[in-house]
Amino acid sequence: MIKKCLFPAAGYGTRFLPATKAMPKEMLPVLSKPLIQYGVEEAMEAGLTEMAIVTGRGKRAIEDHFDISYELEHQIKGTDKEQALADIRHIINTCTFSYTRQIEMNGLGHAILTGETLIGQAPFGVVLADDLCIGEGEGVLSQMVALYHKYRCSIFAIEEVDPQETDRYGIIEGDNIADGVYIVKSMVEKPAPENAPTNLAVIGRYILTPDIFDILRETKPGKNGEIQITDALQTQAKNGMVIAYKFRGIRYDCGSLEGYVKATTELFRKMQEARE
After folding, report:
1. Alpha-carbon distance 168 to 19, whole Å?
2. What is the pTM of this model?
3. How do residues 63-90 score in pLDDT, each as one tens digit?
4. What is the CATH number of the domain that holds 18?
């Protein structure tokens, strides 16, 4: 059983300055919930209840969010506002949270390696909170956990992107072995459109086997001088098997202003429709 989920949450969120000057980007609200709470709820649905969060300076709000606020709860006790905390109370009562700090920003691979002390030697999920995913029927991580039980290897989510935007993503090439399932042959980080092997882009959902930590320790800095998880997964694919999964659902890139506004607008519309 996969029980642990890692949340790299140490980035500066510079695309949302000045809002993120003093507030973690993971705490940006979509409707009435912060982005990271959507990710935690997705992990819970998949059966992952041990949340490991890699933070940095100025990220204290994340820890406070997943904790009891006695003063606030006292003030709203007995009012209709108390119900607004029902979901976060359920999370706090169901999950455990552990934290470590990433001292320097050196790529997603480095952030995941920093989380090793919280994960240990077990397969684990990884959620990038600014990729807000709404699955069809079940959440994206739930879909991926089912695949892990079948293939027992590292898995990551992919989606088709505009061929002119490949330089924003890790891009994969693979052999299609089932509906939406690819055995990875090669990966390249942020290739120019003319050099991209496909338009199948890696997005922020992973299930990783623990040998990834040893691989990351040996991975040399790549694109932008950072330790890239795509380089480590490429090594893992050469030595064994790695699966890319074209998930059922929709992903909002809430790391960009356009995607964030789109997520807020569409989820608000769905909420209004559900009330009618």
Report:
1. 23
2. 0.93
3. 999 998 888 888 888 888 888 888 999 9
4. 3.90.550.10
